[in-house]
Amino acid sequence: MAPLSSSETWEFIDSVQLLKSVLEKLHGLLSNPPSLFVDLEGINLSRSGSISLFSLHVAPVSKTYLIDVFGLGHKAFTTEDATGTSLKSILETEDITKVFFDIRNDADALFSLQGIRVRGITDLQVMEFATRDSQPSRFVSGLAKCIKDDCPMPQYEKQKWLRTKDRVGALFSPERGGSYQVFNERPLQKIIAEYSAEDAALLPRLWKAYSAMLTSNTAFWQMMIRKETLKRIEQSQSQKLYCTYQVHGIWALGQARGTEGYEVLGQRSTLGLSLSTE
Fold first, then answer.
1. pLDDT tens digits along 56-74
2. Residue ranges of the chain with pLDDT lower than 50?
3. pLDDT of amino acid 96
């Protein structure tokens, strides 16, 4: 098969040389508003699974870099540019804001598989929960629901995204006869690349939408979101964590208990988030 060709909006990064060129473009970016938005794809994405793709969307240039973790291995995170900057150093610094949607499984996988302790993280799933009315649901929302309900985009664009999501779902969902191994196939199927790039590229729109909803008492909500995100990261890196992971970051433990907040070894969440998505 022919190598995967990139597009104007995304680029597949499968060599150390290409990765260095990406790292060189990340200097001097703003953190307020955030410039870097991240989404990971993998097989059983957690400490017991593997990372296939690291999708890095750079908002100021509207471009997503699909970094081939499956092919590059540890070099995906340890490769440095001329200034000593690496993905690992970017992920571990407080000085650069990185936006994820549901950091839990990503933080677990990055820490357990790559030795990376993420810092400077904003979790969009926590932001969405904070925007709800005074009597919110116990459950957090998944990315697909947030995009469908909250992402400001033309209807035709949303329909295109839904069609792509459905087609890719048939490729990777075991329930539909697919396999998550499609993320490790090389050359990567173009539709998989487009799906991964689009998910990351939509995160800035969600960030803007939720930020606009939290303009009242902004400092308070920033503190609460930061505190909840830190707790998620700490719990995901705990050696005693006993939650059962699923590919899309759903921590199922606690759903049957009917708890109003998720609980890991007796620790309750600040915002009362449930382990499960709705």
1. 999 999 999 999 999 999 9
2. 242-270, 274-276
3. 97
| Domain tally, the chain | 1
Strand 121-123, strand 98-100: pairing: parallel
For residue 66, the domain's CATH number is 3.30.420.10
Q: One-letter amino acid identity for 7? A: S
Whether 1 is in a domain gets the answer no
Residue 127: inside a domain: yes
In a domain, 4, yes or no: no
Structural domain of 122: 10-268
Q: Is residue 38 part of a domain?
A: yes
Q: Note the pTM of the prediction, 2 decimals.
A: 0.86
